[in-house]
Fold this sequence. Notes:
single chain, mainly beta, Lipocalin, 8-stranded antiparallel barrel
Amino acid sequence: MKKLIALFIVILSVFLILASCDRTLIYGSYIRENGDNSPLGTFTIKLSNNGKYSYYEGPLSSHIGYGEYTVDGNRIILVDEQIPGLNRTLTCTYVFEYSCGKLIFLADESDKFMYTNLPDGAVFELKIN
């Protein structure tokens, strides 16, 4: 009987934790976990409530990307039309999954960033000031 009660409490706790996770997009700055292990420093993505975003790959990069993003279910799609290329401007798309205040990079669905090779599943956490 004690095992049954303990199992019930564990299942109820897991359910409450999952239910408390807000899936509504939170605007603000997202910082890559373990970003200071990178020679480029901390990678930051800032989402604004007007559908615009910017990203900064780190202090060794002079490039600040920006553009517009869309929300498609739990996916955040960043479109950067400002990437300089040979004789023209390139358009790059970066796709993230949004879950509980985190952006999770989907490398297979995204273009590569200019200075950072982000692995699939790289996590950016909302920075709380």
